[in-house]
Each structure stands twice: as structure tokens, then as C-alpha cells.
Design brief:
With 426 residues, this protein is α/β, with parallel strands linked by helices. It contains 14 helices and 11 strands. The chain has 3 domains: 116 residues, Gyrase A, domain 2 (2-Layer Sandwich); 131 residues, tRNA modification GTPase MnmE domain 2 (Four Helix Bundle (Hemerythrin (Met), subunit A)); 144 residues, P-loop containing nucleotide triphosphate hydrolases (Rossmann fold, 3-Layer(aba) Sandwich), CATH 3.40.50. The strands form 2 sheets. It has a 6-stranded mixed beta sheet. A hairpin with a 2-residue loop joins strand 3 and strand 4. It is flat, with a radius of gyration of 29 Å. About 3% of the residues have low confidence.
Length: 426
């Protein structure tokens, strides 16, 4: 396998840049550029030279095979983070025989292939790199730490145990499964099915943490929706004016509320409009608001809107600066009531994500659903006194679904798509 290298830290000017070299020739390449290398996992300062010419100084780290991120021999060079310095060191590495620049995600792919991480951990790592909020970070760290893969391995071990018990009686196909074997197998299957079901129950909440929520602001024209959006976002994201119908398309602003990713939507004012373009904007706003996870109904009095609040939707009175007597009202102009509104939004969304699981992707959900379905089928066969071979086949199908989820089998076509989303140095 080729020895690869790449910049592992972010591109651009920085105090320090980390360059990673991984593969069978990594140690030799490090020695060619830096001379005597430090002992494994001991940092030491070295000069980086190419053909006797000083290129840079680097803090050098060496990792033995089996002890690195990729599982291969690895050398990391922490060099000065100037653009020219990084380019010069990369060019020096490219001049070494047998080395080539890594492809996107190739370091992580080698970590998977060498058993250092399973596929769910790789996906957690990708999510950690992309995490924008505290909730996303916590979720990604939990998945990257291998908790989902560990649970899958426990379920798989129980499936192997159940299969072994069934295999012991398959040779006696003319007889019923002994009662003690049947009871132990059913107990194991109940344990597996219960664990998988709990993970699947929290999949929807986990997806909302990862993807974020949509919160739509709806109300009549000139009620202050765009002003409220700008106040919550802390910037002039939407045009505001006293002309009815100013907002004709849905304005989106991404922000964080109580550690959760939220996209605020400013919709067109709801009214009977004569202008055809405005009517299209109103229809789009209503459709988008209905699809949103939560709606904030901003009202100026007791007007009736062509959209009714759902159970957890928030209804507030507008223009607290003009009508301070309105209890719980808000004002985008003065900021009155905004803290309370944010607390209400955060409380509703926090309730939606309570009980979230580690099933963060549709691929995980499908695999676990297939595994649970096969376990249920096997249990029904055993309880109903059906053919033992059929139950054993269902258990094998369940184990394979779990193996697919953690990347042990049947994911070759998926890997290119997964790793293409990583940067070159990861």
C-alpha cells in the first residue's frame, strides 16, 4: 500500500501546521528529511532538510504500526504555519520515493480498513468536524467514541450465542427444540430486540440534533416578523419596511439556540393579497410554516390568521415597544421579551430531543430496523415451534445487518461516498 502524506490541519496562515505521513515508508521519509527521529510518541525538535538545504524546523512525532490513527507507521511534522513553509515541506515530502499526496478521507479510510475504527465511528468523526452546535458536538463525540458500534457488537455476540444454541439441535431436525434451549434463545432475542428498539425510538430526536430544527415566524403583514428575525439573528438578514408585502419569499437564518442548530424562517405576511406574486409568496410561506418543526405566531391584537397554531407552537404579542401593557409581548426594535422567547423556543426544542439515541443517520436506522425485524421473525418461529433452520437463517440475516452498519461487510459501494466528504488531510 502506498505511503501517503497531507496537511492535516486547516489551510491558511497559522502558528502551527500539522503534516501527517502514513505508510510503510513513513519512517524512512522522516529520517530522510529530519535525520535521527525521536522515540515513538516522544516529541522532539528537528530541522527539516532537503538535499542539505534547511526547509523548516518541526516538532516531530513518530507512531509505530498499531499505535497510530491509521494503524500504520506514522510520522507527524508540526511545522510553522505560514503558507510558504507548509508548501515547502509538502514539496520536500513529494520528492521522497514512494510517497504521494493523500486523497480525501484516505487517512480515515485506512483507519477503518486496519480496524482502528468502525464505520459508525468514521461517520461520527465526519459529524464532529462539521459540528456547529454544542448538541451536535456531544452527539458526534459519543458516536465517534464507538458507543453505537459497541452496542452492535454486544447484540451480535448474543446473536452468535443464540445461533450456536440452535445449531446444536439442527441435527435433530425431527425433534422439537428442547424447552431449556428455547427459553434461553427467546430470552437472548428479547434482550436484543429491546435494545435495538430503544435505539430506534430515539432516532428521530437524534436526527433533529444532527440536521437542526426549522422554526417559522408567521403573522400578518407589518406585524414585525422581519424585525424579530433580525433581532434574534443579531444582524440585518431580512429587509424591513412599513410597506405591506415587503417579504415575498422565505428568508432563512441559521443560528444556535440552547446548543441546538435552528434555522429561523421569516415568511410572507398572511393576508388576502391582490398581487399575484405576493400571493405566491404567501402560499409558499404557509406551506413552509406547516412543514417547520415549530411556529412562532406573532400577533398584533386578536387578528385571525389562515393558519392555526399546533399544540407546542408559541403565540406572542408583537410591538411591546408600542404596547407595553401586553403581557409576554416582544419587540424586535427594543429587544423587549426576546430573552423570554428564546427560553420558550429552547424549552420546546429540548423536549423534542430528550431521549435521543446514537442512530444519527438513515443508514443506521435501516440496518437496525432490518436486524430487529429478523430477530422478531426468528422469535416467532421458535415460539411457534417452526423449523429451527428458518430461525437460524433469520438470526444470520440479523447479524449481517449489524455487520453492515458497522462496516464489516457489504459497504464497499458506500465507502467512496463517505470518504469523499472528508478533507485531504483526514
Amino acid at each position: 500500500m502506498d505511503t501517503i502524506f497531507a496537511l492535516a490541519s486547516a489551510r491558511g496562515k497559522a502558528g502551527v501546521a500539522v503534516i501527517r505521513v502514513s505508510g510503510n515508508l513513513a519512517i524512512a521519509a522522516g529520517q530522510a528529511l529530519c535525520g535521527d527521529l525521536p522515540l515513538p510518541r516522544r516529541a522532539a525538535l528537528r530541522e527539516v532538510r532537503l538535499e542539505g538545504r534547511l526547509v523548516d524546523q518541526a516538532l516531530v512525532l513518530v507512531f509505530e504500526p498499531g499505535a497510530s490513527f491509521t494503524g500504520e507507521a506514522t510520522v507527524e511534522l508540526q511545522v510553522h504555519g505560514g503558507t510558504a513553509s507548509v508548501r515547502a515541506v509538502l514539496q520536500a515530502l513529494a520528492a521522497q520515493p514512494g510517497l504521494r499526496l493523500a486523497e480525501p478521507g484516505e487517512f480515515s479510510r485506512r483507519a477503518l480498513e486496519n480496524g482502528r475504527m468502525d464505520l459508525t465511528q468514521i461517520e461520527g468523526l465526519a459529524d464532529l468536524i462539521d459540528a456547529e452546535t454544542e448538541a451536535q458536538r456531544r452527539q458526534a463525540v459519543a458516536v465517534m467514541s464507538g458507543h453505537l458500534g459497541q452496542r452492535a457488537e454486544r447484540w451480535r455476540a448474543d446473536l452468535v450465542r443464540a445461533s450456536a444454541l440452535l445449531a446444536a439441535v439442527i441435527d435433530f431436525s425431527d425433534e422439537d427444540v428442547p424447552e431449556e434451549v428455547s427459553e434461553e434463545v427467546v430470552a437472548l432475542l428479547d434482550l436484543i430486540e429491546g435494545g435495538i428498539s430503544r435505539e430506534l425510538e430515539g432516532a428521530g430526536a437524534a436526527e433533529r440534533i444532527r440536521e437542526g430544527f426549522e422554526v417559522a415566524i408567521v403573522g400578518a403583514p407589518n406585524v414585525g416578523k422581519s424585525t424579530l428575525l433580525n433581532a434574534l439573528a443579531g444582524r440585518e438578514a431580512a429587509i424591513t419596511s412599513d410597506v405591506a408585502g415587503t417579504t415575498r419569499d422565505v428568508i432563512e437564518v441559521r443560528m444556535e439556540i440552547d446548543g441546538l442548530a435552528v434555522t429561523l424562517l421569516d415568511t410572507a405576511g398572511l393576508r388576502d393579497a391582490d398581487d399575484r406574486v405576493e400571493r405566491i409568496g404567501i402560499e409558499r410561506g404557509i406551506d413552509r410554516a406547516r412543514l417547520a418543526d415549530l411556529r412562532i405566531f406573532l400577533k398584533d391584537g386578536a387578528e385571525v390568521l389562515p393558519l392555526d397554531p399546533a399544540l407546542e407552537d408559541i403565540v406572542v404579542q408583537a410591538k411591546a415597544d408600542l404596547h407595553p401593557e401586553r403581557e409576554g409581548s416582544v419587540s424586535g426594535k427594543t429587544g423587549a421579551g426576546l430573552d423570554g422567547l428564546l427560553l420558550r423556543i429552547g424549552a420546546v426544542l429540548a423536549g423534542r430531543v430528550s431521549g435521543s439515541s446514537l442512530v444519527i443517520r438513515e443508514r443506521h436506522r435501516q440496518a437496525l430496523s432490518e436486524a430487529a425485524g429478523s430477530v422478531g421473525s426468528a422469535r416467532a418461529v421458535i415460539v411457534g415451534g417452526g423449523p429451527v433452520e428458518l430461525a437460524a437463517a433469520e438470526l444470520q440475516a440479523s447479524a449481517r445487518a449489524l455487520e453492515i452498519m458497522i462496516g464489516k461487510v457489504g459497504v464497499e459501494d458506500l465507502l467512496d461516498e463517505v470518504f469523499s466528504r472528508f478533507c485531504i488531510g483526514k
